[in-house]
Design a protein that fits this description.
Length: 472
């Protein structure tokens, strides 16, 4: 009698990855290292740094400018946006920047609401909004926040966002002053955008858990790696952004393949417990974070140097990068879902996720499927990092860590180990988090994910698409 899944098992048992695949992986990894080496060698050192401009030159006050600033090894940029109470860009507002050596320059917001100032000396700068130039009927949400002190450095961007309100004397710190249908619609769209980009990483995280039972705390660093590599290729080496996205995704996928080949499969063969493996992922996360900080610094860097253009559609104002990133994320997620549902290897992946022992008994090469899952998950996370870096207009060494809670909440809400559940959970988390910004200030909105996570574990621990199981 032919055993179940024999045809699929025959395809999956054709042997371990051939020598050509090993050579390909080695070439990708060596190219990755070579790129770092070239960038390190070409980067100007401290000894080659140009001397700071004289006090007389710095003290000269430049006229108001609307020209975008571009970072380089000899200058940094202080920039930001000003939006009104409906989150629409505000033009014609003057922003004064003063700094070391008598530096003084004024920037005027463009039609996109953006302003930028180029600085050639690292140090603390004072950023002030000229409230006399604000539109009639618009006021700063916090009048005391009109003057800020920021630390600027060379070859880096420092962002400052000023929010306006239609109510004078409001003293919030970034929270919404009033909830209007327009603002709710804008925040809902931002939630859809955040949910799609989180889903790219969450689907891989869910597949890893489904096939191995491991909750990978280092998955956020795969997102950071994607964003920082995109900055390296597109910003520092001048690559085309489309080519950058493809190469970064492939390189991140290669790191997932290497992780399983060098770390996870040997540990699985030694029958290391899941708790010990989880501790390894925590250590790997910490090591990766400080490696990123060592090579790229602690400041936020931009993948694209130019200021993004905004497009208003159906009452929504988003950057061009946001629209493109949402479209790419949607296409990739649909393609991933079709792959898992329609292809033999996709069905084998789902079989291993459902019951690894039964899948192995059916002739499926479980180790090969797990290797593929690690590769796919790392590639999707890297692509998510590229998209997030473009949408958020910056990425730093802690970007993935800041999003890790949202990923875990998404996976738990949708159902552990289910790729479709991770997608639905990510959309819900993204929308709720952004809508929370209507009533909560600043980054307090991310605490919503923790509240949702606790409620899920209390009332439906198996998640939306998960199955309740009896223990004991």
């Amino acid at each position: 009698m032919t055993p179940p899944g024999s045809a699929l098992a025959h395809r999956l048992r054709r042997g371990a990855p051939g020598r050509s695949r090993l050579v390909l992986a080695a070439v990708l990894f060596l190219a990755f290292l070579a790129t770092f080496a070239v960038d390190w060698a070409l980067a100007p050192g401290a000894d080659a740094a140009t001397s700071a401009p004289s006090a007389s030159a710095s003290a000269s006050s430049a006229p108001a400018s609307t020209q975008p600033c571009t970072v380089s090894p000899t200058n940094g940029c202080i920039q930001g946006t000003i939006t009104d109470s409906d989150r629409k860009p505000v033009s014609g507002v003057d922003v004064d920047v003063a700094g070391p050596g008598g530096f003084s320059q004024t920037a005027t917001t463009a039609d996109t609401g953006r302003w930028s100032v180029s600085v050639t000396q690292a140090g603390n700068y004072t950023v002030s909004v000229d409230q006399d130039t604000l539109p009639k009927g618009q006021y700063l949400t916090n009048a005391a926040d009109a003057k800020r002190t920021v630390a600027a450095s060379l070859n880096a961007n420092v962002g400052q966002i000023f929010q306006l309100s239609d109510q004078q004397g409001v003293t919030t710190t970034g929270a919404a002053t009033s909830v209007t249908p327009q603002r709710a619609w804008q925040q809902f769209a931002s939630g859809i955008r955040l949910g799609l980009l989180i889903a790219l990483a969450s689907v891989g995280l869910s597949l890893i858990y489904g096939t191995t039972g491991l909750s990978s705390f280092s998955h956020g660093e795969q997102v950071t790696l994607g964003g920082l590599l995109a900055y390296l290729f597109a910003n520092q080496l001048g690559w085309n952004i489309w080519l950058t996205g493809i190469v970064v995704t492939l390189l991140c996928a290669a790191t997932g393949w290497l992780q399983d080949a060098g770390i996870w499969r040997p540990l699985r063969k030694k029958r290391i417990s899941l708790t010990q493996l989880m501790i390894v992922t925590i250590g790997l996360s910490i090591a990766a974070q400080y490696a990123f900080q060592y090579f790229f610094g602690a400041s936020t860097v931009r993948i694209q140097q130019g200021n993004p253009e905004t497009v208003t559609f159906a009452g929504l104002t988003l950057t061009v990068q946001s629209y493109v990133a949402m479209a790419i994320a949607l296409v990739v997620l649909v393609g991933t879902g079709l792959f898992l549902a329609k292809t033999r290897f996709g069905r084998a992946t789902r079989a291993v996720s459902d019951n690894p022992a039964l899948a192995s008994a059916s002739g499926i090469d479980v180790d090969r499927v797990i290797r593929f899952v690690w590769t796919l998950a790392a590639g999707l996370a890297g692509l998510s990092g590229v998209m997030l870096g473009l949408v958020l207009n910056g990425v730093n060494w802690q970007t993935g860590l800041q999003l890790l809670l949202l990923m875990f909440a998404s996976v738990t809400l949708g159902g552990l180990g289910t790729a479709y559940g991770a997608l639905v959970g990510s959309m819900i988390i993204g929308i709720v988090v952004e809508l929370t910004n209507l009533v909560l200030p600043g980054d307090f909105k991310y605490a919503t994910a923790l509240v949702i996570l606790i409620l899920i574990l209390l009332f439906r621990p198996q998640g939306i698409f998960g199955r309740a199981e009896r223990i004991g």
